[in-house]
Design brief:
About 20% of the residues lie in helices and about 30% in strands. It is of the alpha+beta class. Helix 1 runs antiparallel to helix 2.
Length: about 750
C-alpha cells in the first residue's frame, strides 16, 4: 500500500474538510441544511484573485455558520451515529485515495521548502565531506544554515546535521590534521570561528575576536589561523560620533569599516589566542591564503572599502605583523590570491584588464625572497576559454571549474616542474550540472554538488582519474512526489547576424510533442550571467517548475554576452546592449513558435536585473507579449549612470560616459520609448537596491501609469537589496509573478 506522506496527508486533509462541509447538519426546523465551501466565499460565491491590482484588491468575506444549527433533542443516537459512520467511511476512502495519488505540480510553497547544499569541503584524507544546508524558516523569516557531514564511503542515510545552534552556521574548513573542522557562526554576540569534530559533540569557540570574523584559513602546519576582521572603533571615533553623528560621506569610509588580516596561534585544544593584525593601514583585504611553510600570507586587497575601488585591486605578500606589505602584482583590474604552491608560487585570479568581458584566468607568480622581487605573472589557464575558478593544486595537477555552455565542468591541467605542462582535460562527464568542487589533500578524490532539470542538488563524491559520481545525500526526498516539467537545451539562429544562440527550455508537466502551449521568457541578468541546465525549483523570482505545472513552457535564453561560451561570445554585446542581444532573445520566441511549441497568442516576458532591463526594452519593441514582469531593471541609462554603485558597468557595455554621448544613452534606454508599451506590466524591486536603485522602477511605473494605456503594478520590498532575501517576501515575490501570468496570459479560472 502506498505510503501516506506529509504532503499527501495535507492534500487529503484539505479534501476531507471540503467533504465534511457538505455533510448534512440538522437545523432547528428539522430540515437538513447543507454547508459547502462556497458558503465561505465573498459576495456572489466567487473567489477573488491575488495580484489583481490596487483597484481590485481581494476582499474575501467569510459567512459564519448558523449558530442555531443543532440536532433536535433525542436524535443523537441514530442520526449522529450514521453521520459519524459516514464521516469515518469517507475518511478511510479519502485516505486510500491520498495514499495512491500521482505526483502533483510544484507550488510556490514547495519551492520555499527546498533544502540547498553549498560550501562543500572534503577532509584532507578524503574520508569525510562537510557541507552547508540552507533552508527557509518561514516563521522566523530567515534562511537557516547548518553544517552537515557525511562519510565518503557512506550513502544518503549517513548524512547528518552537525551543527544545530541558533544563528547561521556556514563556511566549513578542515583543520590540516583532519580531526576537526572550523566553521563560521553568529550564534554568539559576534560572528566567530567555531570548531567541531565530525563525529559530533559540542562545538567550541576557536576565535574570540572583538569584532565579527569573516573569511578564515588554517596554516598548513595547523599551528595558526588567519582571518579577516574590522578593527574596533577607537575612543576618539566614538567621541566624535557622539558629537556629530555618523554621516555617510560618498567615496569614503570610517576606520572601523576597513577589513584587515589578523593571525592567532592555535592551542592543542583548538582554541585561538589573542589575534595580531598583520595587514597595514590603507589596504582593504578581501581574501587570504597561507604560504606552504606557514610563515607568510598572501592576500588580495584594494585601496579602499568603497566598492568602486575594486578595479584597482592587487595581491600582496605579508611575512609578519611588522613587515611591509609586498606588492606581488601590477596587472590592470582586480585580482586576488586563491592558493600558494611551492613550485608555482602564489596563484592569483585575474583577467589582467581594467574593464571588459575578458576571461578571468589563474596566474602563477613567484613571490620572491631575500631581496629578490616578485616574478612576472604566468598564465596557468590560458588554454581554457572561460572564467576559471580554482579548486586544487598539487602533485597530481591543477583542477579548475568553469562554465561550459549550459553546464559546469571540472578540468585537469597537468603540472610539471612548477609549470602547467599541457591543455585542460575534462574530468566531469557533462551528464549533470556540477559545482562546488572540493578535493582531498592528494587530489585523488573530489566532492561536489550535482543536479539536473528534474533533480535538485545533492552532494556527490568521485575519483578524479575515473569519474564515477556516488551520491551521498538525499536532501529533498519529497521531490519524488512532484510532477516536474521535462527540460532540454534548444538552439536557434539569431536574426542579428545569424549567431547561434542556446537556451534552456522547460516544458509543461505532461507535455506532448505537437502541443502549442503558453510560453514565458525568463531572462538572466549580468549580462554576463548564464541560464544553466540545472534544477530551477529552489531559487529566483520566477519559479520555473511552478510555471511548468501551470501549463507554461519556460525559455531561458543565453543571449550574446552570456558566460559559458567563451570570451568572444561574452564580448559580442559590448557597445550594443539594447541591440542585437534583445534580437537574440526575441529570435528564440520565433523559434519556439516555428517548432510548434509556443502559442503565439499566449506569450509573456520576465527577468531580473539585466533581465529586467531586457524586459523593459522588449515591451517597447513589440506588442507580442500578453504580460511582462520586470525585476530590478534599468530603463533610463542616463539617470542610472549616476544612481548605481557601479557606473563603470556602462564604460564596458556602452563605452562613453553619458555626457560624452547623450544620444547613445537615450537611444538605448527603454524609458525613451515608454509610450509604445501595450503589455500589462508588473514591476518588483528591493527598497535598498544599490545596484539598480528603486528609482529606476518608480520612474517607469509612473510613466506607464501616467500614460494610462495598460495596467501596471509596482511592488517595492522593504529592506531588501538587489535580490529579495526575506523568505516571506520571496513568497510574495513568486506568488505575484504566478498570479500575474495566470491573470493576463491564462485568464481567470473557469468555475467548476
Amino acid at each position: 500500500m502506498a505510503r501516506l506522506t506529509v504532503r499527501s496527508k495535507a492534500r487529503f486533509v484539505g479534501r476531507f474538510l471540503d467533504i465534511v462541509e457538505t455533510l448534512s447538519v440538522w437545523g432547528m426546523d428539522g430540515r437538513v441544511r447543507v454547508w459547502t465551501p462556497s458558503d465561505k466565499l465573498g459576495p456572489g460565491g466567487g473567489r477573488r484573485h491575488a495580484g489583481a491590482g490596487a483597484s481590485e484588491a481581494a476582499n474575501l468575506s467569510v459567512t459564519p455558520r448558523n449558530q442555531d444549527a443543532q440536532a433536535p433533542e433525542g436524535i443523537m443516537s441514530r442520526s449522529t451515529t450514521l453521520t459519524l459512520f459516514g464521516i469515518a467511511a469517507v475518511l478511510g476512502h479519502a485516505a486510500g485515495i491520498a495514499g495512491q495519488q500521482s505526483p502533483q505540480p510544484m507550488t510556490v510553497d514547495d519551492v520555499l521548502a527546498m533544502r540547498t547544499p553549498s560550501s562543500v569541503a572534503m577532509s584532507p584524507d578524503g574520508s569525510w565531506v562537510a557541507f552547508v544546508v540552507s533552508e527557509r524558516d518561514m516563521e522566523a523569516d530567515r534562511v537557516v544554515t547548518d553544517v552537515w557531514v557525511v562519510p565518503t564511503g557512506g550513502n544518503p542515510g549517513d548524512a547528518r546535521r552537525l551543527t544545530t545552534g541558533e544563528g547561521a552556521d556556514d563556511s566549513p574548513a578542515w583543520h590540516p590534521g583532519g580531526e576537526w573542522l572550523g566553521f563560521a557562526s553568529d550564534r554568539g554576540e559576534r560572528r566567530q570561528v567555531y570548531g567541531i569534530r565530525p563525529n559530533g559533540g559540542e562545538a567550541w569557540p576557536v576565535t574570540s575576536h572583538v569584532t565579527d570574523v569573516g573569511a578564515f584559513a588554517f596554516s598548513p602546519d595547523g599551528a595558526r589561523i588567519a582571518f579577516l576582521a574590522s578593527p574596533p572603533k577607537s575612543e576618539a571615533d566614538e567621541a566624535l560620533e557622539r558629537l556629530r553623528g555618523r554621516p555617510m560621506v560618498q567615496d569614503s569610509a570610517y576606520a572601523d569599516e576597513w577589513t584587515h588580516v589578523y593571525v592567532a596561534e592555535l592551542s592543542d585544544d583548538g582554541s585561538a589566542g589573542d589575534a595580531v593584525r598583520w595587514s597595514p593601514d590603507g589596504l582593504q583585504v578581501e581574501n587570504v591564503v597561507w604560504s606552504p611553510d606557514a610563515r607568510a600570507v598572501a592576500y588580495g586587497a584594494r585601496p579602499s572599502p568603497v566598492l568602486r575601488t575594486r578595479y584597482n585591486g592587487a595581491t600582496y605578500v605579508q611575512r609578519g605583523p611588522e613587515a611591509e606589505a609586498e606588492p606581488l602584482t601590477t596587472m590592470d583590474g582586480p585580482d586576488g590570491a586563491v592558493a600558494w604552491d611551492e613550485g608555482i608560487g602564489v596563484v592569483v585570479a585575474a583577467s589582467g584588464h581594467l574593464l571588459g568581458t575578458f576571461n578571468r584566468q589563474l596566474w602563477g607568480v613567484s613571490p620572491g625572497a631575500g631581496g629578490v622581487g616578485a616574478g612576472e605573472p604566468v598564465s596557468l589557464t590560458g588554454d581554457l576559454d572561460e572564467n576559471a575558478a580554482f579548486v586544487y593544486l598539487g602533485e597530481s595537477g591543477l583542477l579548475v571549474s568553469a562554465s561550459s555552455r549550459t553546464g559546469s565542468a571540472l578540468y585537469h591541467f597537468p603540472v610539471l616542474a612548477g609549470r602547467v605542462a599541457g591543455p585542460p582535460a575534462a574530468v566531469t562527464d557533462g551528464a549533470r550540472f556540477y559545482g562546488g568542487f572540493s578535493a582531498s589533500a592528494d587530489g585523488t578524490l573530489i566532492a561536489f554538488t550535482a543536479e539536473d532539470g528534474t533533480s535538485p542538488p545533492d552532494v556527490f563524491v568521485s575519483g578524479t582519474r575515473s569519474f564515477m559520481p556516488a551520491r551521498l545525500t538525499d536532501l529533498n526526498p519529497r521531490t519524488a512526489e512532484l510532477a516536474l516539467g521535462e527540460q532540454r537545451v534548444e538552439r536557434w539562429r539569431s536574426r542579428a547576424g545569424g549567431e547561434e544562440i542556446e537556451g534552456v527550455l522547460t516544458l509543461p508537466v505532461g507535455y506532448e510533442e505537437g502541443d502549442r502551449v503558453p510560453l514565458v521568457l525568463v531572462i538572466h541578468g549580468g549580462p554576463a550571467g548564464v541560464s544553466s541546465d540545472r534544477f530551477h525549483g529552489t531559487r529566483g523570482a520566477y519559479p520555473v517548475q511552478v510555471y511548468a505545472g501551470m501549463g507554461f513552457a519556460v525559455l531561458q535564453p543565453n543571449y550574446r554576452g552570456s558566460t559559458g561560451y567563451g570570451e568572444r561570445f561574452r564580448g559580442l554585446n559590448r557597445g550594443d546592449i539594447s541591440g542585437s542581444d534583445w534580437v537574440d532573445v526575441d529570435s528564440g520566441v520565433d523559434a519556439m513558435i516555428e517548432r510548434g511549441i509556443a502559442d503565439p497568442a499566449r506569450l509573456a516576458v520576465s527577468g531580473w536585473s539585466f533581465g529586467g532591463h531586457h524586459t523593459y526594452w522588449g515591451i517597447t519593441r513589440t506588442d507580442r507579449f500578453k504580460a511582462a514582469s520586470a525585476g530590478a531593471g534599468a530603463n533610463d541609462l542616463i539617470s542610472m549612470y549616476s544612481q548605481t554603485d557601479l557606473p563603470e558597468f556602462y564604460h564596458t557595455y556602452l563605452g562613453p560616459k553619458p555626457w560624452e554621448d547623450w544620444e547613445l544613452y537615450e537611444e538605448r534606454s527603454a524609458y525613451r520609448y515608454v509610450d509604445r508599451v501595450t503589455t500589462p506590466l508588473l514591476i518588483q524591486v528591493g527598497e535598498n537596491d544599490e545596484r539598480v536603485p528603486a528609482e529606476q522602477s518608480i520612474q517607469f511605473f509612473e510613466a506607464i501609469r501616467g500614460i494610462g494605456k495598460v495596467p501596471t503594478e509596482l511592488v517595492i520590498y522593504p529592506g531588501q537589496p538587489h535580490g529579495v532575501r526575506s523568505p516571506r517576501l520571496q513568497r510574495d515575490l513568486m506568488t505575484r509573478n504566478v498570479e500575474w501570468l495566470r491573470r493576463w496570459v491564462l485568464g481567470p479560472p473557469q468555475a467548476s
